[in-house]
Specification:
Blueprint: H1 11-14, H2 17-30, E1 42-46, E2 55-60, H3 63-66
Length: 80
């Protein structure tokens, strides 16, 4: 049985790293003035239904302070 971590998303979009990039970026923006917020790590693992093990898609520490950007037309070095 498959259990969704983001029930509002269709299954295919739930594995889209851009969805999570947007969420982490929004988290960073919402805490920019909070002195108690240190940073956020962005880690994402995924697998196909036929795969036995998970694959690391993103594993970036201190994502907020790095101010990473997403580019639709070029390589995103923070994404594997």
């Amino acid at each position: 049985m498959y259990e969704s971590g983001l029930p509002e998303l269709e299954l295919r979009r739930e594995c889209d790293p851009v969805v999570y990039y947007d969420r982490v970026t929004n988290l960073c923006r919402s805490h920019v003035a909070d002195p108690n917020f240190a940073d956020a790590d962005f880690v994402m693992h995924a697998k196909r239904a036929t795969d036995a093990t998970m694959t690391t898609i993103v594993d970036e520490a201190n994502f907020c302070s790095r101010h990473e950007v997403y580019s639709i037309f070029s390589n995103n070095h923070w994404m594997r």
